[in-house]
């Protein structure tokens, strides 16, 4: 392994935020180790399709795709349990019904194993405070404490930083930053419930559409 190569394990959903985060790391000179999770979410097929297309644009070789079917056994989230309706009435107070129990903690733990194997120095996650309010595993304090824990639980020579480059950005700023870096936003997917055309009314679609509106740019994906 060439020790001069900087590597970053990027957790990539196929969405706008994690895609921008990966492009930011690429522009900083990191080799992108792309990691995607299939966790039996409603839009799993579409997210995976987006992930593959984005990896191709980034010239990523041998991306990691991890299947976690236990989330559907767990249920307790509208994203993984089809008996729970996706909310479409606007942002909720408190922890949203779309919260998947400890999902990011599990994702980070698995990403750590890959980073240690690959000799990476960064884990990159596209959490955003604006659209993560109410999600306890998206809080910056939690991510910081997780960084301490993973470094305690790995080899002494493994020193990992969890980078969250978008955490303080507004969605409109993410749109503008993506345009500036030529991120293929037309390939990204945000909708919680549809895989053909985005529904336009779930929380994730609302945040995305408002971000484009505030930025003064038309969203390139199709909406129902």
3D structure, described in words:
The protein is α/β, with parallel strands linked by helices and 224 residues long. It has a single domain (7-171), classed as HUPs (Rossmann fold). Helices cover 39% and strands 10% of the residues. It is built from eight helices and five strands. A five-stranded parallel sheet has the order 3-2-1-4-5, sandwiched between helices. α1 (16-27) packs across α7 and α7 crosses α8. The longest helix is centred in the middle third of the chain and has 16 residues, at 103-118. The protein is globular and about 50 Å long. The N and C termini lie far apart (48 Å). The model has no long low-confidence stretch (mean pLDDT 95).
Give the SSE layout.
Blueprint: E1 7-11, H1 16-27, E2 31-38, H2 44-57, E3 64-67, H3 70-74, H4 103-118, E4 122-124, H5 129-132, H6 140-152, E5 161-163, H7 171-180, H8 203-215
Parallel strand pairs: 1-2, 1-4, 2-3, 4-5
Mean pLDDT: 95
Q: What structural category characterises the helix and strand content? A: alpha/beta
Order of H and E elements:
EHEHEHHEHHEHH
Number of domains: 1
Our measurement of the CA-to-CA distance between the termini, rounded to an integer number of angstroms, reads 48 Å
* Proportion of helical residues: 25-40%
Number of helices: 8
Keyphrases for this structure?
globular, Rossmann fold, alpha/beta, 5 strands
Task: Give me a quick take on this structure.
The protein is of the alpha/beta class. Helix content is 39%, strand content 10%.
